[in-house]
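# step 3/5: fold
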Amino acid sequence: MLAAGCGGDDEPAEEQGVTRPQYIKQVDALCAKTTRDSRSINRRIQALIEGSGTYSSRLRKGAPLLRQTYKKQAAKFAAFKKLEPPEADRAQIKELTVVAQRALNDLRDALPAADEGDLPPIIDLATDASGARTKAERLGVTYGFREDCFGLPVSLG
């Protein structure tokens, strides 16, 4: 009788939420998909970085590619924010989310400069002058996410 009053063995256990390995697997899958979907854009950006011509002209040619990159990264980030992290990790993921939002904002804010071929704001973006991208990448990798989740998808050097 006491077991019946407390729910007994016939009732399902209370849901515990997602585990850290499950959450990492979800986020990594999202990042891998975005990386695959962005591969052709990233190759074209890389070709412009390594190409010839003035920096300004290559930047203007790359502006539409940077806009496509921004859209893909913004969509990935929106999907990331919808995933529920493990309860014990919420503060850590909140910190990562805040910093990743700043890094995404850096990209968004540099788009008009790319359109104009204005190098200084793009140099700031590329060198991560705000530090947001580097911090987001570090926080993500420290948590256990793939390196490409919050890192730069092209080589600058």
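# step 4/5: annotate
The mean pLDDT is 89.
# step 5/5: archive (pending)
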